[in-house]
């Protein structure tokens, strides 16, 4: 069994945006798409997004819990491919003893229909209906989810077809997940700052450099530069650059972190396989 964290533990299983990028140039930070696991003491396991990184999480959970049933809460930011494409390969969904609650910004019937869609003919051989885990669908946004000492607040992000940010709070520790989002919408910029207030960890969409952003305005993503502004204005303790662009090599991500640190010192880049314990 994994040792229980004292407050919260964040584990990165997928940190890439848009499309998985296997290869030598992306090996260090990782090529799997979005999936973050959050553990809190003695409670259900929390997961943000089901990108390709969730496959390895499923394998690790089976190994850790063996025959013990799992109770999982999956918080989906939205339904773009890079956030759901790993779900058909998530082994815990194929075990009838497990329970998985899908939280998202959509109504329960709608989110179920969307997830059924990606596994329907002719896209995938196994139908969503054939998954044996008990599944429940919940609209998370707007709203608050409480579970033991844990509170999860959902808030809207500026992204094509919208996305949801999540503020996780447990035993005084706060982790905020804000991806995918583009800055520049006055109202939603201030909503983000409100929910990111005094977070111990802010995981933020930093897909582009400021130079790239100039030609990719309106595509729904932000920059490491904006990430540092949010971190400063919201009084965040640690900033995690997340949702790396598929064209960004390890070398480029390291450069982005170096540039970001000149403006906000406690900055790291999300890295597959790495964790933060609070
Ligand atoms: Zn994405
Ligand atoms: Zn997206």
What does this structure look like?
The chain has a 7-stranded mixed β-sheet with strand order 6-5-4-3-2-1-14. A 7-stranded mixed β-sheet has the order 7-8-9-10-11-12-13, covered by helices on one side. Helices cover 24% and strands 27% of the residues. The longest helix has 12 residues, at 54-65. The chain has one domain (9-277): 4-Layer Sandwich (Metallo-beta-lactamase, Chain A). Strand 5, helix 3 and strand 6 (134-139) form a beta-alpha-beta unit. The protein is globular, with a radius of gyration of 18 Å. Helix 6 runs parallel beside helix 7. It is of the alpha/beta class and 278 residues long. Residues 78, 80, 159, 163, 180, 220 line the site of one zinc ion. One zinc ion binds at residues 17-18, 34, 80, 82-83, 180, 243.
Topology:
Blueprint: E1 9-14, E2 35-39, E3 45-48, H1 54-65, E4 71-75, H2 81-84, E5 99-104, H3 108-118, E6 134-139, E7 143-147, E8 150-157, E9 163-170, E10 173-178, H4 186-196, E11 201-205, H5 210-215, H6 224-234, E12 238-242, H7 250-261, E13 267-269, E14 275-277
Parallel strand pairs: 3-4, 4-5, 5-6, 10-11, 11-12, 12-13
Antiparallel strand pairs: 1-2, 1-14, 2-3, 7-8, 8-9, 9-10
The chain binds zinc ion (2 copies).
Residues 78, 80, 159, 163, 180, 220 line the site of one zinc ion (ZN).
């Amino acid at each position: 069994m994994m040792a229980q964290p004292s407050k919260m533990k964040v584990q990165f299983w997928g940190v890439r945006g848009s499309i998985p990028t296997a290869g030598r140039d992306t090996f260090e930070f990782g090529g799997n798409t979005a999936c973050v696991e959050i553990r809190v003491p003695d409670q259900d396991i929390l997961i943000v997004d089901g990108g390709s990184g969730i496959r390895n999480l499923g394998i690790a959970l089976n190994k850790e819990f063996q025959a013990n049933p799992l109770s999982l809460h999956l918080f989906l930011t939205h339904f773009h491919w890079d956030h759901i494409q790993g779900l058909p390969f998530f082994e815990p969904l194929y075990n009838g003893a497990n329970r998985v609650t899908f939280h998202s910004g959509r109504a329960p019937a709608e989110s179920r229909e969307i997830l059924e869609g990606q596994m329907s003919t002719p896209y995938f051989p196994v139908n969503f209906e054939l998954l044996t885990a008990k599944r429940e669908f919940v609209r998370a946004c707007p709203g608050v989810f409480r579970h033991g000492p844990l509170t999860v607040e959902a808030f809207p992000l500026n992204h094509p077809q919208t996305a949801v940010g999540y503020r996780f709070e447990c035993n005084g520790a706060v982790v905020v997940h804000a991806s995918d989002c583009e800055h520049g919408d006055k109202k939603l910029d201030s909503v983000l700052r409100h929910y990111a207030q005094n977070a111990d960890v802010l995981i933020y969409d930093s897909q582009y450099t400021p130079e790239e952003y100039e030609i990719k305005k309106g595509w729904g993503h932000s920059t490491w530069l904006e990430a540092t502004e949010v971190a400063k204005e919201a009084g965040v303790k640690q900033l995690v650059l997340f949702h790396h662009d598929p064209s960004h090599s390890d070398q480029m991500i390291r450069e982005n972190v170096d540039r970001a640190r000149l403006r906000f010192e406690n900055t790291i880049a999300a890295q597959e396989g790495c964790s933060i314990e609070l």
